[in-house]
Amino acid sequence: NAGVTQTPKFQVLKTGQSMTLQCAQDMNHEYMSWYRQDPGMGLRLIHYSVGAGITDQGEVPNGYNVSRSTTEDFPLRLLSAAPSQTSVYFCASRAAGRYNEQFFGPGTRLTVL
Amino acid sequence: AQTVTQSQPEMSVQEAETVTLSCTYDTSENNYYLFWYKQPPSRQMILVIRQEAYKQQNATENRFSVNFQKAAKSFSLKISDSQLGDTAMYFCAFRGGNEKLTFGTGTRLTIIP
Asked: Which of A19, A103, B29, B77 is most buried when burial is the number of CB atoms within 10 A of its CB?
């Protein structure tokens, strides 16, 4: 049971490049989310999904796309990277039910030059 | 929208002492859930403790306990007999009816040997 996995751990992009951050979970969780963490700002929700085929925007969705074709995978796409997207990105998953613990991946540190 | 406020950006305490981290939140909902997460230097997000709003009894997990004051919308975390391994960022988080987890900006706690 690997929990929530994210790849890559580190990435450097140039402005305008695109890339996909991968996220997978093996706990059969319905809910998956992407957050970004910036100094002094805590974790902010980018996009989330309550099941395969269902996604919705969070607090800071601009510049990011997601899709959820399977229960296990929830990739985050940066369409045209900007320096403002330099951050640490966390993927998380949990079972349905608001009391349930949210499990986080190890994070991806992204730098956009 | 719900907001979560952590007014102490940094705290430090001697090993074996007790420390209390503050958290306040703003919501018009009556049924919600509150969480404290720990983020050590490894960057991994770890659930410390959680509280259901409709339960008056304060949650406890070993050396960690909360003081939940629903009317005051306050949810502080007390760490007893602090240990060096407690050094981390601590985030307070709120989950209401929209199922999203909203985080505060965090408190950096340092345990001094």
From this structure: B77
